[in-house]
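Bug: token stream looks shifted between consecutive jobs. Job 1:
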Amino acid sequence: MNIWKKIKSIFQKPLLLTKEVKQKSIAIRDLQYKTKKELESIGRKLGIELDRRLTKQKLINKIKFRARNKNR
């Protein structure tokens, strides 16, 4: 029985790691490395709807503004 528990635990560990990655917070300084689609999804998580027709810098500025005001 111990062998099966060890085998089962080996295959379950990567699944736990993927769940932890989804809950990872995003640093404001890393926004410049994101694509416009990624920025749009981040904005949705913050509760704002972003228009991808805007420049990338304007999208980042809106996300920063919302993140700062949300913390107050």
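Job 2, same session, no restart:
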Amino acid sequence: MDSIISIKVKKTNAYFYFKKSNYNRMMDSIKKLKWRYAVKKFDSTKFLSDLKIEILKEAFNLTATSYGLQPIKLVIVNDKEIQDNLVKCSFGQQQIIQASHILIFCIENQINEKYIRDYFNLIKKIRNTSDEILQPFQEALITTFSKKDANEIRIWAINQAYLAMGNLLTVCAMEEIDACPMEGFLADGYDDILNLKDKNLTSVLVMPVGYRAEDDIFSNFDKVRKSINDSIIQL
């Protein structure tokens, strides 16, 4: 039977009680998040297994998105020739060629009435929800998006891509997969090399994944973060 441990919160008289196994699990999660950092040099001889890639695929697909519309797609590149070409559009950042795989977070270029109706048809197929229940929400969503201009929809979709990247960064930490989130790249170049326009997509974020090189000096740097009291307000 698990023993019980108590923790006293600083500057309060409150105590929290946890089963030892739950506390150890919690601390293990924190330890892995502290282990994670934006890798500056990958070991180009190490590659992610098919299982690890499948985990990342599933995690991406399970990411929460606004209205559940999933206006994002993930392009996974595991081809050194393509990766080498992408370096030229990444301001020379060598992680792109060193990494096992490159994850490119993309947004759909057309979020229109058809896209929304297709989403509600999927709900109906999976949940067998009646039209009577779905119709009001569907029409309200179509009306909402009809009032947005193309740039507003683009910004909204990009925000969903950031949600997905944040989710995958955490999953990578839990799976001990190294990663480097990147905003610094030329989207037009990526779109051309990967023929994304033909797929009605635009690249917005990039994340090389793999395993850190032993001589990446950044792996030994202490994390620079505000104190909990400075970054969190608890009411």
